Amino acid sequence: MNFCQAANTDFSTFVGSQECDQGSAFGGDFDVSPCFTHYGCPNEMSDLPGNGRAAARGGAASRIPRCAPPQRQRQTPTTMARSPRINCSFRPVFHERTTNEDDSVLTQQLWKLARKTGHLNLSNKALAKVPERLYDINEADADSKAVNLEQLTIKEEDAWWNQVPLTNLDLSSNTLTHLSPKIANLQQSLTVLTLHDNALVELPPEIGKLEKLMRLNVSHNKLSQLPRETYSLPELRHLNISYNAFNELDPDISDLHMLEFLDAGHNNIQSLPGGIGFLVRLTALLLPHNHIKELPPDLVNMRSLQKLDLMQNDLTCLPEDMGLLRKLECLYLQHNDILELPNFEGNEALSELHASNNFIMTVPKAMCSNLPHLKILDLRDNKITELPDELCLLRNLNRLDVSNNTISMLPVTLSSLAHLISLQVDGNPIKTIRRDIIQCGTTRILKTLHERALAKAKEDGSDVAGSTLAAGISVTRLSGGQADDGELPNKYPDSSYQQQQQHQFQYQHQCPCQYHQQHQGGVAPHGYMYKSLSQCQEYHEQIQRHLYKPESYQSSLASGQQSRECRGVMYQQQQQHPYQQKHHYQQQAVHPRWVYKLRHTRTLAVNLEELTEVPEQVFQIARNEGVHVVDFARNQLSTLPSGLQHMHDLVTELVLSHNLIGYVPQFISQFTRITFLNLSNNLLSDLPKEFGVLNTLRELNIANNRFEFIPNGVFELQGLEILVASENHIKMLNVSGLKSMPRLSTLDLRNNDIDLIPPTLGNLTKITHLELVGNPFRQPRHQILMKGTEAIMSYLRDRIPT
């Protein structure tokens, strides 16, 4: 039966005594009794004699006559052929698209919008073929040219000379199988072509004529190769061919000299071409879910590579000279057959290393000293039997996952990792720590390891665990976590200077009460050591007086009270009067290993030292060595060290978490290159008004402070992408302020005092990650919060009053 004719049924055929002949309606292939066998056809209802009611109503029938059905003659094929055929025409929901239907998708409204903005979105239109008129969109149509001058004066924006050429074409999520060669008509304007989620089996060679094309997305199709002309696109920077049927990458891909992003994941690629190393501008290479067994040697020539994704392949090893990828930041190696990791010498920028579900048995000790900026180390589901003590050299490590291995003991040096917030050790036969302690989580495990480190140091007779517990800046800390063995690398230019400086470097901590007690006790002035700040009554009194009064900080600095602060300095002592020694610090010699580490890592990291003040000499030396990362987490600083001003044009990352900071000085606005600022776990309740001028800041962490509102200066940060303000006392949301932040994508407001979520928050569609758990509001409910950001935003938008 032709269903396309069912919707045009001609009901005018049912007149007179015409019956609904099912046999003729369905082709006359079977015999069916008439529809109205007992009561007759409703159209034949008429007055019958004796029907009083019908007569009273002027002859109109009031009920179906109850008469015997007339005798009907059985229809023969001859009579059936003479019966008129009913035209049953209707269009089902699922049917084959016609060319006219595809052309009708490009409405006049879309046409005008595209010619006005240069963007045309035909996504998810069920197109089987691209409308032919689309390829002529850059040409002036007849209607535009026929408009007279008077009409153009009234509506000049519609004039053909004011129209914008098409630059962005989105044909994704349709049913396209081919693309017309007429795509070459857009060669002078098209820069973005999106064709993902179609049924394309090939692309026309004419696609190579799109000289200005910069982004091409053909993912989620049925392509097995690209036309050779594609690799001659001179401006192509972004190429996505994932989720297709590629068995290999064409060697000509190395001709795409401007390519910066390549995603070839979820294919059947067995190997990579040898010339892929010529893609020297590539910053992201994504090859997950393939069958690659070996990487070509010239892969390490991609000196701009920042992200390399090789998860779900068949790799057994990595190139030995991985260190040549000096800009590599993220490396994904999950679900391979890797047996060992390289030393990563030279990969100092690496911040994430994911190597779970492999066959790794050991963690290289040299790797720990070569990755100073590593933040995430994922080694779960491997064959690791032991963790080295050198893990403490990964001083920026935030997350360490070694679950489901065969580790029996955790090194106590893990307790010295100041930024470690997640330690996963489940699934290991650990015998040295009770199971209930492991179940309590990271904080309890690290506390146990720290207590054991103290006990071990006490048994060994060391000076209170050496430099780990010293209040001043120790050589161990300033040298990047490495113990001072008195030796320098051979490549250090001033290694001969080492033999001239064999004096003992000592770190002094000066506080008036400590100096008085130790001096009265007969201790030599140059040998006095620190007393714990928890026993310093004067320091606590000062904190109580000035903690929440910003003006107190400024007045104290101006009046010279800085000499009362406890401070730690690294220098060689001079034999001078105790009073002079108290007020004058002269740096005779700086330890060469410390200077070398500053120059080598570009990082000044001093953690777990109970510092209350840092001398300016430290920052002057760090500036001379080009340091751009400053980390003073887990100390007892009450404000930002004034010496930081010397590095205002160098610092890109500043970490001051886990201190006693109650006030941020105004000079923070001078940091013109800062991109990351961590002020979490302090005593802050506000930020200076000048804070909003930090246009380069991309991530701000003010969690676990005493904020009752998000400071107004934060809303002026035009470049901020991540804002973490959890664990505070924020009571309300300033949606208009958040709306003024165009790049904000992550907003973490967990565990605050927010009692109402404005529905207009749902209009901030640029926020892709929103955390609201742990607040006292009633709507949205917890079940919606657990569904994720998209569900929360949709829920809020539905409740915006219209």
Global morphology: globular
Unreliable runs: 1-67, 77-81, 463-589
Biggest sheet architecture: 13 strands, parallel
Any idea what the radius of gyration is?
Answer: 38 Å
The SS-based structural class is alpha/beta
Strand order of the largest sheet: 1-2-3-4-5-6-7-8-9-10-11-12-13
Helix fraction bin: 10-25%
Portion in strands: 5-15%
Oligomer: single chain
Mean pLDDT across residues = 77
Pfam family, one: LRR_8
InterPro entries: Leu-rich_rpt, Leu-rich_rpt_typical-subtyp, LRR_dom_sf, LRR_domain-containing
Keywords: Leucine-rich repeat, Repeat
Protein name: Leucine-rich repeat-containing protein 40 isoform X2
Could you walk me through the main structural features you see in this protein, from its secondary elements to its overall organization?
This protein is an alpha/beta fold and 802 residues long. α18 links the parallel β21 and β22 (746-748). 19% of the residues lie in helices and 9% in strands. It is globular.
Features:
single chain; alpha/beta; 802 residues; disordered N terminus; 13-stranded parallel sheet; 9% strand; 8-stranded parallel sheet; 20 helices
Helix and strand arrangement:
Elements: H1 22-25, H2 52-56, H3 77-82, H4 99-105, H5 108-117, E1 119-121, H6 142-146, H7 149-154, E2 168-170, E3 192-194, E4 215-217, E5 238-240, E6 261-263, E7 284-286, E8 307-309, E9 330-332, E10 352-354, H8 365-370, E11 376-378, E12 399-401, E13 422-424, H9 435-439, H10 442-460, H11 475-478, E14 506-510, H12 512-520, H13 537-546, H14 550-558, E15 567-571, H15 578-583, H16 592-601, E16 603-605, H17 616-624, E17 629-631, E18 653-655, E19 676-678, E20 699-701, E21 722-724, H18 735-739, E22 746-748, E23 769-771, H19 782-785, H20 789-798
Parallel strand pairs: 1-2, 2-3, 3-4, 4-5, 5-6, 6-7, 7-8, 8-9, 9-10, 10-11, 11-12, 12-13, 16-17, 17-18, 18-19, 19-20, 20-21, 21-22, 22-23
Antiparallel strand pairs: 14-15
